[in-house]
Amino acid sequence: xxxIEKISxxxxxxxxxxxxxxxxxxxxxxxxxLGEYEAAAAEAYSQRMAxxxxxxxxxxxxxxxxxxxEMRKALLAFKQELVSEAFAKAIEAIANLPEDEYIEFLAxxxxxAANSGEExxxxxxxxxxxxGAKAVRRANxxxxxxxxxxxxxxxxxxxxxxxxxxxxxxxxEINCAGxxxxxxxxxxxxxxxxxxxFS
Length: 199
What we know:
- By secondary structure, the protein is of the alpha+beta class.
- The chain has two domains: 3-95; 99-184, hypothetical protein PF0899 fold, CATH 3.30.2320.
- It has helices at residues 3-40, 45-95, 99-113, 125-145, 178-198, and strands at residues 120-122, 153-154, 164-169, 172-177.
């Protein structure tokens, strides 16, 4: 059983305990209501008992429905947290790709983001030093393969981003940082990520 399954099982177990407590409280309240009706009047005993039982049943159903709704809300919040964590891990995974894969990833994204092929690319300080020149060279090769000029250049300045790059052409910047790319795809991919996590 992996960590997510353990957490899910614990959450469901905690919710079941809350339901059991609510059921116990409901039973206690029902007994009190029944006792009040029994003491009211002997001549109306059977009528009042029927009304008391009906009221208890309704209250129990309402409380169980409320407890069930709370459990569902807690489970949904937990699932949303796990989906967010999965996207955070994806951002981290991009930044931690092996160097050759990271260069290919950056180059493909640069080639895709380039319009004129003459833009300037800003990377994080670490990426600029480690893979910047190689990624820009590879991106220019990809641009040339599709018939473009392929004259992207690596900016002297760096960007405060965890991974990915910023494509700049004059005053226009396109944010292709790893976290921005993943978050742009979040709405489209969230249901698929949830299906993988919870199927």
